[in-house]
Amino acid sequence: MENKQLKFKHKKTLQHLIVLLLSILTLIGSLIGYFFYPKTLFFFLIVIANAGILYVLFVSKTTKNTVVYDAVFVRYKLGDKPAERIKNDILLEAKKQEKDIFIKTQQNEHIAINLSSYTQESIDEFYLLLENICRINNTKTKQ
């Protein structure tokens, strides 16, 4: 069986929120303008606003074999399983055993991530990401 490679992406949450907010404001303004003055300009502004909203929706989607992380969540989709997410603030400890990663959270939950069909480099990179988040959380709690 061939080992797969995980893709890692840093999600630009603030940029997506700004584009979404501007698109929604443009859409509302254009709809009001088109209602009072049915001009072609307002129609094109409506199309541009919808394109901005669709851009955010498509870019925010987590695809297969991908780990997406930002300041709040780590989201991952392994194979055909549904995407899962872990909140960064609750991570306490991450351990790696062969091709599995075990995570302990602040609520004493234990999360097991089976990465048996992925390359060792992908497993190491995912583990380092989780380990760095845990280290940051541990320094926050000590302060």
Structure description:
The protein is α+β, with helices and mostly antiparallel strands. Helix content is 48%, strand content 24%. The protein has three helices and seven strands. A four-stranded mixed β-sheet has the order 1-2-3-4, with no helix packed on it. Helix 1 runs antiparallel to helix 2. The longest helix is centred in the N-terminal third of the chain and has 24 residues, at 13-36. The chain is elongated and about 65 Å long. The mean pLDDT is 88.
Global morphology: elongated
Beta strand %: 15-25%
The N- to C-terminal Cα distance equals 47 Å
Care to count the β-strands? 7
Helix-strand string:
EHHEEEEEEH
Q: What is the mean predicted local confidence, pLDDT?
A: 88
Which structural category fits the helices and strands? Answer: alpha+beta
| Percent helix | 40-55%
Uncertain runs are none
Tally of helical segments: 3
Order of strands across the widest beta sheet?
Answer: 1-2-3-4
Question: What is the CA-atom radius of gyration, in angstroms?
Answer: 21 Å
Please summarize the sheet with the most strands.
4 strands, mixed
